[in-house]
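Running this now, will post back.
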Amino acid sequence: MNRSQTDQGKKTLRVGVAGLGKMGLLHAAIFNGLPGSQVVAAADSTATLRNAIGEINPDLQMFSDSIEMLNKASLDAVVIATPVADHIPTALECVKKKIPFLMEKPLATSASQAADLVAALQKNPVSHMIGYMTRFIDTFIKGREVLKSNALGGLQRVTASIYVSQLFTKGKGWRYDKKISGGGVILSQGSHLLDLLTWYFGPVKKVNASMTSVYSPEIEDFGHLILDFQSGLQCTLDTSWSVRFKRTVETTIDILGDNGSLIISDDTVKLFLDEPQGGFPAGWSTWSAADLYRGVQIDIGGPQYTREDIAFLEGIGGGGPMQPDILQALHVQRIVDGAYASSQNGGNGVVIQ
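Update: finished.
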């Protein structure tokens, strides 16, 4: 049996990749390694990169423009990993051609930029997923399971942070150009945490924010948010890509409840209960990432990316709705937009529509 068929006799999905940066290359490698998919075309504006990849894989159709790829290649699915400003135009072309797409986060440079895509998908639904991959990390999945058990009882307060040691001089490239990226650390990095928090606690109704730019003249390097959820819960969120001693991204959610506390990070889930509840004993219960690990067929950059891509393929195959979808990502985008507006207005609260 050749690569045109899976072990079950189903046709292999032909995947196109728009954007050959870090995330585009990562998804391309995973889809080429998974049964049921094969990357057959790719687009990137950088000729040197196109030429190098073309030499490695001469059978791959190479294009300088994502729209050209969508018009000329025969595709069953598309990964959109372009700079943020190009997300919506590429996705709109996918909807026009009824091609399912997996789009890297964030959704857009702003919620208003995404309006045409939201309208297009409401009129002509197409399978899609937005790439908030932290939902596929074992510890955050376990943390949500514990939270949904109501073991903590009533929730009192939440603090959350996401840090990495990335930027200590003036940044170079499109990520530090607000017209192309849409924003700095809150949109690029903090949106992962915002997606987790809304996945855990539901919609946000108001945000207050303050931001600081140290190394980036156009965008923020530090951000501090106060989130008021529709449920009445309040959360403080702190994020920076310019802190010391964080070699990889470190994400932490600390939840205090009437019956104890729950601390979730990339590496561990720690639960303390005053009284047994929700199927968990009193006292400490701890799970490490190693305890929770579930193997995947191919691991490039972390199993969460493979799980995300598998969920996308299964969704195309009729395995149910994909999450997070555009409406969930749009809510995160509106929180970010509100945070920027709040910061520009002295930290006054902004209501999320």
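The radius of gyration is 21 Å. More later if anyone needs it.
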